[in-house]
Design goal:
This protein has 5 helices and 6 strands; from the N terminus they run βαβαβββααβα. It has a 6-stranded mixed beta sheet. It has a single domain, classed as ph1033 like domains (ph1033 like fold, Roll). It is globular, with a radius of gyration of 14 Å. The protein is of the alpha+beta class.
Length: 132
């Protein structure tokens, strides 16, 4: 099983929206590297939802509910479904992540513009630990 960090602008779709909906189609990923990451995700993989914009923080957990598929209403773009998990007790800020040596190689730090990035098991575990 893998883990992923999914970025979203909270004014567009927030973790609170995912909590309300329970499950959603995750779309709008356009960068070729981010799209390749999205296509590698599998049902049951763990996710961390990260708010961009002014917030810049990991805010909650989720799960891939359906692996990547083509969505015909969006010019055949690749999408997947995400199911809500638990909100983080403490949001983990980008500043905290950047200051932690555990994330030195993390694409969130090294390739900040990617909206769908893999997390190593150690990075995922560290994010969860920091969120408690």
């Amino acid at each position: 099983m893998s883990a992923w960090l999914l970025k979203t602008e909270p004014s567009t779709y927030s973790f609170a929206d995912l909590t309300r909906d329970g499950r959603t189609r995750w779309d709008g990923v356009a960068n070729p590297v981010a799209c390749a990451n999205l296509r590698r995700a599998r049902e049951g993989d763990a996710c961390v939802i990260y708010h961009t914009g002014k917030e810049r923080a990991a805010v909650g957990a989720a799960t891939i509910a359906r692996a990547a598929y083509r969505f015909p209403d969006d010019a055949g773009a690749w999408v997947l479904d995400v199911a809500v998990g638990a909100p983080f007790v403490n949001a983990v800020s980008l500043a905290t992540i950047k200051a932690d040596v555990a994330f030195a190689s993390c694409p969130l730090v090294r390739q900040g513009r990617l909206s769908f990035v893999p997390l190593t098991d150690a990075e995922h575990a560290r994010l969860l630990a920091l969120s408690r």
